């Protein structure tokens, strides 16, 4: 497993690792020591350290700048993270060394890498008993929308919804980074998506028709809906879910701003001045705020 060093990406590959481990295969999770530590601490519903067949490999990268975020930037993408993304180049050598070591003692080595880590695993093609798969963390709709818009929005077999353009969503540096990483995806044996065909079958079919990748699998969603009792928990549903069950149908709207945008003080104020808000606090307490 070669994740992209951002929390949502780290977490998804950890949960895919959990599924693979359940079939008796050892899993090696390769990233920087800092991001491996973040993944272990923040993963929900699972203690990967307790699994004997799960191996973290801490890699070092040279120091890089960590500027503060700029909520007043013209483009709201968190460009302060770009130096961290660029530092991933330095993972290529340790990943290649690990692959050669594993391939010398295993019949076959499977590499599942985040789609934005293509350059890091490019040496997998030179290992005869290795096979690589690109892992896409975004929804099938989002991924197809990227492709569809770059093609000039041609007529497709399914009606595309009227959604805003991606123009102005990403910095040019990040767009160049994505383009460079995706150059290496054609050598993959297939693509894995963190989604379900039941939910996104239309867009998975469109991806299959409009990409060159050989095979496609929808294996998600990966985040656990329940926490097993063997993980040290009672197995009871979280009280956040219990609260949601009591709400009227179609009365709850979930909005995730993710890590691809930043908001200024004025925007945060406008968001907070809604008549009634419920916030899920990171420490597990549901808070109700009634604001004027």
Automatic annotation (TrEMBL):
Domain Glycosyltransferase N-terminal as annotated: residue spans: 1-224
Xref: InterPro entries: Glyco_transf_N
Signal peptide, first to last residue: none
Residue spans crossing the bilayer: none
Family: Belongs to the UDP-glycosyltransferase family.
The protein's name: Glycosyltransferase N-terminal domain-containing protein
UniProt organism field: Hibiscus sabdariffa
């Amino acid at each position: 497993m070669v994740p992209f060093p951002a929390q949502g990406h780290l977490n998804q590959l950890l949960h895919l690792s959990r599924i693979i481990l359940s079939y008796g295969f050892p899993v090696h999770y390769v990233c920087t020591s800092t991001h491996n530590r973040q993944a272990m601490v923040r993963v929900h519903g699972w203690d990967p350290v307790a699994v004997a067949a799960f191996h973290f490999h801490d890699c070092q990268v040279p120091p890089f700048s960590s500027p503060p975020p700029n909520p007043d930037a013209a483009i709201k993408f968190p460009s302060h993270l770009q130096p961290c993304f660029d530092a991933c180049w330095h993972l290529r050598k340790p990943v290649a060394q690990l692959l050669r070591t594993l391939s010398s003692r295993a019949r076959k080595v499977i590499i599942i890498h985040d789609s934005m880590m293509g350059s890091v695993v490019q040496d997998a093609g030179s290992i005869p008993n290795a096979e690589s798969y690109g892992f896409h963390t975004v929804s099938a709709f989002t991924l197809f929308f990227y492709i569809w818009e770059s093609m000039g929005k041609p007529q497709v077999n399914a009606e595309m919804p009227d959604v805003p353009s991606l123009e102005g969503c990403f910095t040019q540096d990040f767009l160049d980074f994505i383009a460079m990483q995706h150059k290496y995806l054609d050598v993959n044996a297939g693509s894995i998506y963190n989604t379900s065909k039941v939910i996104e079958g239309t867009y998975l079919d469109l991806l299959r028709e409009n990409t060159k990748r050989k095979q496609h699998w929808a294996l998600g969603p990966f985040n656990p809906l329940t926490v097993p009792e063997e993980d040290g928990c009672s197995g009871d549903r979280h009280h956040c879910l219990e609260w949601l069950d009591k709400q009227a149908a179609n009365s709850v709207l979930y909005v995730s701003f993710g890590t691809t945008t930043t908001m200024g003080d004025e925007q945060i104020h406008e968001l907070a001045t809604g008549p009634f808000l419920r916030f899920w606090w990171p420490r597990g307490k549901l808070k109700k705020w009634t604001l004027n």
